[in-house]
Specification:
The chain has 490 residues and is an alpha+beta fold. 35% of the residues lie in helices and 20% in strands. The chain folds into two domains: 183 residues, no CATH class; 231 residues, Transposase Inhibitor Protein From Tn5, Chain A, domain 1 (Alpha-Beta Complex), CATH 3.90.350. Strand 15 and strand 16 form a beta hairpin.
């Protein structure tokens, strides 16, 4: 028997002579009214739909109440709206607004086949969990887990989304590589201790182009930071060149990706270049000695931070196959010297030392902000889309969770790129977009002909909300062309 609501009344501090009372009797209310914008993004671009096509469903069609698209949409919208755990969905499955986002026509779950499910339009945590836990060998003979993910296709789906978002050929594409820690706290497959991060963790590999995510690969942490990067670059660069033959591609990363294999790949690829951090050593510091001394003198004379740039040809004793151009930044701060080095395939005629370092290499810092938006770390908890919820037992399941988070990020990033351009929120982080535009209180009224969502009148971002709506609204006829049907206007 379900828990009965006791209708508790809460008496708060009085407001002058007036009592302030509250109770959970408001009826069909939601805190996620702005989520309707995400459905418009999906209706226009079909991101979740494209993701769902990478799964094979071996379930009996006559027994299915939630399609693969329904399950993925519920999971991804939930992440985008701030619901990080599967257990959240045992309550969310009764939310008519989330059911509307998913595309359920029976928003109240009145026509569910089993009596215990009636009143709950959406799937519970156990059904959603089967998306992640189905093994690769599953087929129709398996009892419960029958939805098989094509991991190879899913790995390349974010590059396809990037191509879809750029209908015209870009002048150049800068691919930023980075690896970061994803702490784990159980006995998951692939569990290793990482000395640098001082914790048991995974070490996912990301590739971004600007704010757009092109690659998200879960890896164990007992590896070099660059492990698998060449294979990932071949997949991404190959698809980009297939779409835009000859487009210039620049590979950028910190010293963890300064490896012979990556540099050699770029040098052999027509139109490709690299700008990579280079870990300092005694030879590099000696080659930059004159510039370091000059920077120190400037600091001592002015008391202000100083930078002097130099460059030279450099080759390691064993690991590099050839000499390469290295740019050194001799910086002196109040805390002392702070030299840095980058190696590049760009010649002096393209970029001088200062512009190469300050304009080309340092811009990668913005990409690290995008990772913080997706990955929930202690330092960036407010910014996340819960990519760290990798608590499943297997690497396969946790890779799928990483992709779900990546898809939620892509959905919000698309909203930001197309809907918020030219507004005060065009550079807003995902958490800010969620708080200001998605987490809007609303009353939901469901009738035979209409779904009326009455958004909170006091929302201070109504003008921006309207701009986003106008940017993504598609004609109702679009539903006949394969996209999820839109809500009928009130």
């Amino acid at each position: 028997m379900g828990t009965q609501c006791i209708g508790r009344r809460f008496e708060f501090q009085a407001l002058g002579q007036r009592q302030v009372v509250a109770s959970f009797d408001g009826g069909r209310l939601t805190s996620d009214g702005g989520g309707l914008l995400l459905r418009e993004v999906e209706s226009k671009h079909g991101l979740i739909k494209g993701f769902a096509q990478c799964f094979t469903d071996h379930r009996d069609p006559d027994m299915i109440e939630h399609t693969v698209y329904d399950l993925l949409a519920q999971r991804v919208y939930g992440l985008a709206l701030g619901y990080e755990d599967l257990s959240d969905h045992d309550q969310l499955r009764t939310d008519e607004l989330l059911a509307a986002l998913v595309g359920k026509e029976d928003l109240e779950g009145a026509r569910r086949s089993r009596a215990r499910d009636r009143g709950k339009a959406l799937a519970g945590k156990s059904t959603l969990n089967r998306l992640e836990l189905t093994p690769s060998v599953a087929d129709a003979s398996h009892r419960y887990k029958k939805i098989v993910a094509d991991m190879e296709r899913l790995g390349g789906v974010f590059t396809e989304f990037y191509i879809q978002a750029h209908p015209t050929r870009p002048d150049r594409i800068v691919l930023d590589l980075d690896a970061t820690d994803d702490p784990i706290h159980g006995e998951q497959e692939g569990r290793f201790f990482h000395g640098y991060y001082g914790a048991y963790c995974y070490l996912p590999l990301y590739i971004f182009a600007g704010d757009s995510l092109l690659w998200a690969q879960l890896r164990s942490s007992d590896i070099d930071a660059s492990a698998g990067a060449v294979a990932a670059l071949l997949a991404v660069m190959g698809r980009l060149w297939e779409q835009w033959p000859g487009v210039e591609i620049v590979i950028r990363g910190d010293s963890g990706f300064c490896r012979e294999e990556i540099m050699r790949l770029c040098e052999a690829w027509p139109g490709a270049h690299y700008v990579l951090g280079l870990a300092k050593n005694a030879r590099l510091l000696d080659a930059l000695k004159t510039e370091r001394e000059q920077a120190q003198r400037q600091y001592e004379a002015t008391g202000k931070a100083s930078r002097v740039f130099g460059e030279f040809e450099y080759r390691t004793a064993k690991s590099w196959s050839r000499a390469r151009r290295v740019v050194g930044k001799a910086e002196h701060l109040s805390k002392g010297a702070n030299p840095r080095f980058v190696v590049t395939s760009f010649g002096r005629e393209r970029y001088d030392a200062r512009s190469l370092y300050e304009e080309q290499y340092c811009a990668r810092g913005e990409m690290e902000n995008r990772i913080k938006e997706q990955l929930a770390s202690e330092l960036a908890r407010r910014l996340d889309l819960f990519a760290d919820r990798t608590s499943a037992a297997t690497m396969r399941a946790n890779q799928l969770r990483l992709w779900f988070s990546s898809l939620a990020y892509t959905l919000i990033e698309t909203l930001r790129r197309e809907g918020l351009k030219g507004t005060e929120m065009e550079q807003a982080q995902c958490a800010t977009i969620r708080t200001r535009l998605l987490k809007i209180g609303a009353r939901v009224a469901v009738s035979v002909r209409r779904v009326v969502v009455s958004l909170a009148s006091g929302c201070p971002y109504q003008d921006i909300f309207a701009r986003v709506f106008d940017a993504f609204r598609v004609p109702s006829l679009q539903g006949l062309m394969g996209s999820p049907p839109g809500l009928e206007p009130a």
